[in-house]
Amino acid sequence: MSLEDVSRKTDSSSADQRAVLQDFTVSFFAMCRLGSFPWRALEKEVQGPDSPGIVLRILQRTVHHPLCLKNPPSVKYRRLFLSELIKKHEAAAGAEPLDELYDAFAEVVGAGEDQVCHKSYFLPSGDTVSLLESTALVSDGTTGLVTWQAAQHLAEWAMERPELFRGRAVLELGSGAGLTGAVVCKSCRPRRYTFSDGHPSVLQLLRGNLALNGLAPPGTPTPGPGTPAVSVAELDWDAAAPEQLEGFQADTVIASDVVYDPGVICALVGLLLKLLKLPVQSRSPDVYIASTIRNPETYRLFKSELDKAGIKHRSVPGPTAQVFPYDRKSTIEIVQLHLLNKVLY
C-alpha cells in the first residue's frame, strides 16, 4: 500500500470518527431516544486500535461537555446513556473497563430524579439554543412544556427562508418551550418577535428560556445590536380582543403543532381569521402553520374549518437540510394561509 493510500484511508477513518462524535453530541443534548444513536458505527470504531480513544472522546463531547455542566439533560437520561455506552464498549473484544466511564456513571447513579431537564440544539451558525423543559409529555394539564417535532421542522424551514422574517414583526401562536422562536430570533433577524401561549405554566417557562438564551436578559429594557425586541404575551384564542391583535402589528404569523385537539380547532381558525383580516402596511400578514399529522381525521377537520371560514390554504415545501435530530418518518406539513380574495405572491 502506497503512502497516498495510507493517507487516504486515515482521512476516511478520521471523517468517520468525526461523524460518529457529531451524531452522539447532537443526539445526546437533544435527549433523543437511545435507540436512535449510531451504536453500530461506534461498535465498528471500538473494534479498532483506538477503542478507548473514541469512547473517551464521546464522553468529552457529552456528559463532560461544558454545555452539559451548565444545561444538563435529565439525570435519568444521563444514567441510561452512560449505562449503554459502558455496555457497548465492554462488548468489544478485549476491551478493558474504563475508569472514566465508571466515574461518570457514579456521579449520576445516586442522584435524585428531575421534574425538568435541559435540551440543547446546535445551529449551523455555531450558536446553541438551550431550553428548560418538563420531563413529562403532559405536565400541569398542558403539552406545551416540551418541544415537539413540528417545532423543529418549522425552525429548520425558517432558517432556509430568512427573508420571510428579516426586519419583520413576528407573532408565534402556541410557542410552547420556545424552540422555533429562539431559532428565528438567532438566525433570521426579525425586528420584533412575540411569543404567545395561553397557559400560565408555559408562559413562565417561556420567559425563563428566553433569558437562558440571551433573548430577554433580566433588567435589559432594550435589545442589543442585531437582537430583536422580544416579548411574551398571554393569548386566549377564544377571547382575543381586536385591540390586542392589532397591537402585535404582525407581518408574519407562525405556529407549530397546534392542530392536535379537535376541541380547539374552531377557536384556532377563528383567531387566524381575525389575524388575516388585520392589514399591516396595507396587506394581510403572512401565515404559516406546521403540523405533525398524527390523526388524519383531526387534520382534515382543521382544513375543513379553514374552508368554511374562507381561508385558502396551500402546502409549501419543507426544509431540505436536517439540522435537528427528530423522527423523519412522521408526516409533517407546513401550510400557508390567506383569505380567498387575497393573492399569494
Keywords:
345 residues, alpha/beta, 9 strands, disordered N terminus
Task: Outline the structure in words.
The protein is an alpha/beta fold and 345 residues long. The protein is built from twelve helices and nine strands. It has helices at residues 3-29, 39-46, 51-61, 66-70, 75-91, 99-109, 149-160, 179-187, 200-212, 242-248, 262-276, 296-308, and strands spanning 116-122, 128-134, 169-173, 192-197, 229-234, 252-256, 286-292, 311-316, 332-339. The strands form two sheets. A seven-stranded mixed beta sheet has the order 5-4-3-6-7-9-8, sandwiched between helices. Helix 9 (200-212) links the parallel strand 4 and strand 5 (229-234). Helix 5 runs antiparallel to helix 6, helix 7 (149-160) runs parallel beside helix 8 (179-187) and helix 11 (262-276) packs parallel to helix 12. It is elongated, with a radius of gyration of 23 Å. The protein starts with a helix and ends in a 6-residue tail after the last strand. The model is unreliable at 1-12 and 137-145 (pLDDT under 50).
Q: What profile does the largest beta sheet have?
A: 7 strands, mixed
Report the span from N to C terminus: 60 Å
Q: What integer is the average pLDDT?
A: 87
**Spatial strand order of the main sheet:** 5-4-3-6-7-9-8
Element string (H = helix, E = strand): HHHHHHEEHEHEHEHEHEHEE
In terms of topology, how is this protein built?
Blueprint: H1 3-29, H2 39-46, H3 51-61, H4 66-70, H5 75-91, H6 99-109, E1 116-122, E2 128-134, H7 149-160, E3 169-173, H8 179-187, E4 192-197, H9 200-212, E5 229-234, H10 242-248, E6 252-256, H11 262-276, E7 286-292, H12 296-308, E8 311-316, E9 332-339
Parallel strand pairs: 3-4, 3-6, 4-5, 6-7
Antiparallel strand pairs: 1-2, 7-9, 8-9
Helix pairs in contact: 1-3, 5-6, 7-8, 11-12
